[in-house]
Amino acid sequence: MSSNNNHLNHPVNQDPTVIFMPSGRRGRVTPGQSVLTAARQMGVEIESICGGRLTCGKCKVQVEAGAFPKHGIISNPSHLSPPGEEEQRMLKRLHSEDCRLSCAAYVYGDLLVTVPEESRAHKQIIRKSATERVIEIKPAIRKLYVEVDQAELGEHRGDWGRLQSALADQWQLQHLRLDLPVLRRLQPMLRKCNWSVTVTLWHDQEVIDVQPGYQEGIYGLAVDIGSTTVAGFLCDLRTGDILATESFMNPQVTYGEDLMSRISYAMMNTDGLEKMHTAIIDTLNRLAASVARQANIQARDIHEAVMVGNTTMMHILLGINPIELGGAPFALANRDAMDIKARELNLRLHPGAYVHVLPAEAGHVGADNVAVLIAEQPYQQDENVLVVDVGTNAEIVLGNRHWLYSASSPTGPAFEGAQITYGVRAAPGAIERVRIDPDTKIARFRVIGDERWSNEWQRGPQATPETQPRHLAIGICGSGIIEAVAEMFLAGILWPDGRFNQRCDSDRLVWEERKGSYILATAEESATGAPILVTQDDVRNIQLAKAALYAGAKLLMNRAGLTSVDRILLAGAFGSYIDPKYAMILGLIPDCALENVYPVGNAAGDGARIALLNRDKRIEAQQIARWTRYIETAIDPDFQTEFVNAIHLPHRSDTFPHLADILPASPSDDDDAGEHGRRRRRSRTRMVKL
Amino acid sequence: MSSNNNHLNHPVNQDPTVIFMPSGRRGRVTPGQSVLTAARQMGVEIESICGGRLTCGKCKVQVEAGAFPKHGIISNPSHLSPPGEEEQRMLKRLHSEDCRLSCAAYVYGDLLVTVPEESRAHKQIIRKSATERVIEIKPAIRKLYVEVDQAELGEHRGDWGRLQSALADQWQLQHLRLDLPVLRRLQPMLRKCNWSVTVTLWHDQEVIDVQPGYQEGIYGLAVDIGSTTVAGFLCDLRTGDILATESFMNPQVTYGEDLMSRISYAMMNTDGLEKMHTAIIDTLNRLAASVARQANIQARDIHEAVMVGNTTMMHILLGINPIELGGAPFALANRDAMDIKARELNLRLHPGAYVHVLPAEAGHVGADNVAVLIAEQPYQQDENVLVVDVGTNAEIVLGNRHWLYSASSPTGPAFEGAQITYGVRAAPGAIERVRIDPDTKIARFRVIGDERWSNEWQRGPQATPETQPRHLAIGICGSGIIEAVAEMFLAGILWPDGRFNQRCDSDRLVWEERKGSYILATAEESATGAPILVTQDDVRNIQLAKAALYAGAKLLMNRAGLTSVDRILLAGAFGSYIDPKYAMILGLIPDCALENVYPVGNAAGDGARIALLNRDKRIEAQQIARWTRYIETAIDPDFQTEFVNAIHLPHRSDTFPHLADILPASPSDDDDAGEHGRRRRRSRTRMVKL
Description:
Largest sheet of chain A: 6 strands, mixed
Number of strands of chain A: 29
Oligomer: homodimer
Number of helices of chain A: 16
Strand order of the largest sheet of chain A: 14-13-12-15-17-16
């Protein structure tokens, strides 16, 4: 496609940058490469069946032309080759005139490319899996079979009146109201099914559905709306069973990766809220349809949903502008639980269905944290429990049956693999476990989708289908970067202050302008054919994130007068996949006996499910949300101090006594102690500026 | 326009029939006449400014081509001349391509022509005027000014929580809920108006609006949805004043003039309910906009509406198929009062506004009758009160503080001027008062819009602007036909059984195939230039209607063991304009001292307004609706007997002692007594078949 070279208007001395959304993967490409090739080089998997013959149309992407200062990108239409006639025909046939086929679009300048879900080659692995818990089944909705008196001349109760009489006589229910759409269907329904119906009741207050004859199945949907992932659990409200689970990317990622950028988007664009609201509603509708399909029911068979999420997600879900959450005093529009008709939100569940939204604690601790609390119930413990939920923001709760403190820490998305040079989300091929030989400084790793360590891989002529790597490395996910940095520290590659150790002699270390990088995976081990590195900036970003998390926990401990905690619960996808030992080596969490550090899975999703299955838990949630004392990290001077102190990688056995057995008696540790003390003091101001 | 003669395909021996909707006026026209000319001949007033020059476009009408068996019409497109280029251009400019200009469309066959509201020359006179009553002002909604605590760091109630605190502290209100659209606007509102707002509360339960600063005006809308007319009253809910009234034709008239034809329409057409529901909602929206405009407010300043109407109207309003009301056992979908968000009905009032619908008593006695009851309160009287509300159906209530019976009688639309050969709705030029000289048999009459009797009119050269008739007669309205038939009876033109008296010698009587007609207005007195007649069929239709009404009242009196009542209240537009004396002469109502027969105006509208202004009255309405005992006329053998007995025009002083002073000692009365007794017995079966 040399004919397209006339579109090249990029500075010749610099290769164009391409960023793929929603993964956030970015990289430089040689001008004239196809978008599909560029994606493959960066480990962004785009489906393609016809291999560039313009016949399958599976590889379509959206390419945006504009200024994206946050991403350092200024792109314009000429950065991409224009579509040819054949491509135009195909896109028209796909009703996707706003898209391009990535196999036929050639890069000539900086680009922001969005890969729509249907074009992604591999589904995201569902990391948020619901754990099994004992929950008393006492849902807010129930189904009752009733036999109604026939209409007769001279009797004027009306069909709804007769149904009310039947519910009073047969089920001792009084003072019910009826949803208008049900009233509209009631008369033909009663006559068609010989005056026997199954009624769906919400809180024994409102008839939200009437079905012919005897009907049994009753279904609810619990949803955890994360900034990045939306996870849904379809539950049988009679048995409490999870019938189906599904998770989708939060489509709002397009409008900003973290909460602050979404709030900014709502602030800067008059239709910003509307766009993000519509996007999440669409996704929830797809999610409901998907779980229903899996369970062989219809989305309209779902009669209630419980939704949780951070405060920004909840505001946007309800169509409330989140801008007040973007600045002090971080005022919520509403703190309390709400029940809203699904149809008021354009959610396509049953037309009479309600959505219950759990309450929030404060501007930065939302319904998802309340859900974690009702799932883990620290307020019923004698011990001091620390609950840490790491997402784009980290929510931290500390307490016991007598008191509960909560805080929110701006960890940023580093733990999710974003802001990491070779960071990827958890997907097959992502490096999730790392071990570095302290002598050779050579790493072995494990990728998602393969149980074996990379040093057990066989390649070349002697490899069999069994010994060949199942996935080459595509990048580093959250738990991988934690282990990588911790192992680099343990192997002496990093100083406790996070700098690369220039005295360290290994060809795995690369130096550029006096900044070190570490080759975690070699070109041969990498799917892109280029090595996968951990850079100095990556280490810095991890340090900032872990310091924020640690400082938050420390703040609450100080408030409570504790120097250690009895138990640590790690909630969320990140908490499930991180190795507690490495979390402690890196100093994400305070000192604790390792056997008392547990991953608790998607506790927010569990809490949503618990509130769905048991209406009393909603009252408990409301009480706990108000009872928990929120500590504002933003205005607490303690937080800044703790943050600065926590920037370093931990190595002092007086702060982390439980690490004493784990940490090697590294000579560099002692050697550097004196120098390090000075460096820490010097670094205090410098680090805070980062 | 003789060039259009090729479209003539009508049997030559019969002039085509044209029916104009919604008035129902019909007549035969000479082929080749314009629709506008035909309309004028029949007293249908269509606006026209340019006089057929195709420049004003005011005279547009919709002409339907199809079969209308109910109207005896089978029309097809060739019954009308096709539009010329000039007309097409004009219609395109008016965005009315589905219309014709009546000045340029020529009749060549049977037609059904609908005159849209904007093309009518004279607005309908608002007959339903609200009477002034003393009502305690205690509306369901109220406005409260509150000053809310500012959001502060470290305080997490949220804006709605702070507003709740303010309402609790300043107004002792607890356990409030908030409408979602209000929550969406709450945060910017509080900040813009310095944390002082006016809250609109519904039943002290729900915050349905928040406005900046101090706001005073609070408005509600009371609506009486009649089968023919929709009347609305915009009320100031602080003072109780009526700020504006408006009435529109019920657009459902297009789908059937009476209730049964609308129920049939819903039964026969899958989208019938949808069409009629949408039509009434559109009209209510126009009504709300109109009253708001008159009062210099916006429709969105209306925070509540109370609506009443017969059961069919209420079903259609709520989007419930009324087919069950079309046959025994006449089962209501819902008898009780309901509160529904206006937006659920697509009503464009305030987004948080509620619509309160009053309860019904039985399948044929609806919220409009309950409204009449709470307006007139017969249940607080010691005397026996008969309340008669004549519309297309008549609702009849009899009782006192100890008991209340109600019934519904199928009077049909004759009293409204329909089914009467020269019948018109109440409009300027309609004959409303009639006197016939017993000797000359010549009538004088009064038309709406002119205080003088027709014999005071001056025409020709000696007439001055003062003495000239203001409107020539266009037809006979409901009160006019009552008086005409009664006066014809009193003048000896009619026998008591309703036949024309062949012995009566007057050139005002016309005979055709032994059927008589009476010339009420001469060609000179008529706007169409043709005389206005009362035919034998008209007299029969009035007899049937009045017999149904009387039989209903008699049925209730029999049930209560009464032979007379103490007081009669005539509700509705018809009741307001009918002369009680003639109602009794004709035998519409049972015997009663004339000074105890009162018109009470639009009591249904008054009742709606009372329920709007005073929420306690809604509880009273609910109680009364259940307390009143409904007598089913359709299955009561008594009703048939009373109906047959009531077919005759009353003349027996033993049945109507109060008529003794009024009725002349007509010689024909005595002469005919013996013969009449036989005739009555003979007529019993014949009349029932009618």
